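Predict structure. Chain length: 162.
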Amino acid sequence: MEAASPSTFRPTWQQALGHGLYLGALCAVAGVTTGVIAALAWPGVAGSPGWVWAAILVVPLLLGAVLGLAAGRRTGVEVGGLGIRSSSLLGEDEALWNQVVDLRAERRGRRTVVSVYLESGDSVQLHAPYNGGFFAADPQFELKVFALSHLWRSHRFGGLPS
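Prediction complete.
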């Protein structure tokens, strides 16, 4: 974006930690399942020390938490003079202000997310901000949505210098 002072929205550290713990839990379940299958296939594996089973459970959780926090820093939305750029680990999307016809908060599953509607009829779900339960809660979600809406209206209909 070529703006003097872009606004950036990123997941909160709690949201990033929760996402990492979720992914870590999935890896831990896969590790324990693999260990149980190996114990059933080879009876000698079942006699492994207890710390091995604990490591199979705990290491993926801790690794997932660290990776979730790191990924949370790379995921976000940058709002500038030309439009909105949404980035994640999988890629980036960009919507120019003259393409955006609406911006609103919507309920998607268990989360409330910000969706940007384009002239082409497509909609883009922003990676941040979002709000949900437990680790996905963002106490400033409404303020962030209001700020995004204000920036969009100001750039789309005038009011802010370019």
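Summary: The two ends are 12 Å apart (CA to CA).
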